[in-house]
Amino acid sequence: MWLTHGAALLLAASFVNAQSNSTAPYPNSTYSNATSPNLITTSGAQSFQSSPPFYPSPWGSGAGNWADAYTRARAFVSQLTLLEKVNLTTGVGWEGERCVGQNGAIPRLGFRSLCMQDSPLGLRFTDYNSAFPAGVNVAATFSRGLAYARGQAMGAEHRGKGTDVQLGPVAGPLGRAPEGGRNWEGFSPDPVLTGILMAQTIRGIQDEGVIACAKHYIGNEQEHFRQAGEAQGYKFNISDSLSSNIDDVT
Q1: Helix (H) or strand (E) holding 212
Q2: What is the 3-class SS of 213-224, one letter each residue?
Q3: What is the C-alpha separation between 79 and 104, in angstroms, rounded?
Q4: 177 CB contacts (<8 Å, ≥6 apart)?
Q5: Residues 15, 102: Cα–Cα separation, whole Å
Q6: Would you say 57 and 3 are in contact if contact means Cβ atoms under 8 Å apart?
Q7: I need a surface site. Which of 26, 97, 107, 163 has the fewest CB within 10 A?
Q8: What is the pLDDT of residues 23-33, one digit of tens each?
Q9: 48, pLDDT greater than 90
Q10: Span 5-18, mean pLDDT?
Q11: pLDDT digits (tens, 9 = 90+) for 154-173
């Protein structure tokens, strides 16, 4: 999460205050002697597990070829007002503008809004573009070269449509649940194979001048009733979406 300086300071103060409160009942259930607020849970199976936050977020320094990018980013951000920082790090809403996702622009400094567009299999919601093979099909080839070529071709099409960030490739779902409706988006339950093909795909996309956004590392293993409105459209009588709370160990 990106935070403005003011927000970071406020959250830091809140964190220090919380730590000084000796009556806080639930600092972290993954630590020894922690107590879950959920009375029905048992030892070793606590829900809502979390790690303590750390504020403010540390400044990145950049390494290798990233050093120049970090230097330029700091110089740019140092010129922004608080409102401009908020605008830059806030989305305009699902399909709020021409792309699936976009952030705010900084017209004063000539920084336009970034176009973030689905999908890990090519372009979504556009015409005259390709439907590329699914991740699971690429994994079945065990070919680094084909993974790279596919990524490069997707990147070229995204670039041609004006995309800045391709929302892909997908590392998860891993496919541990065979009935998962989105298993085909990822590559393989084998983490080594997935890692290699993710890297090759990202290289291909970014060699075409488009930023790759690797996503769905964990927690995308189910797609059942993810959105209540969609489920109701299929005549299922539910009012809330289903979700899963993932502990720190996972």
Answers
A1: strand 211-212
A2: CCECCCCCCCCC
A3: 16
A4: 183, 221, 222
A5: 31
A6: yes
A7: 107
A8: 333 334 344 44
A9: no
A10: 34
A11: 999 999 999 999 999 998 87
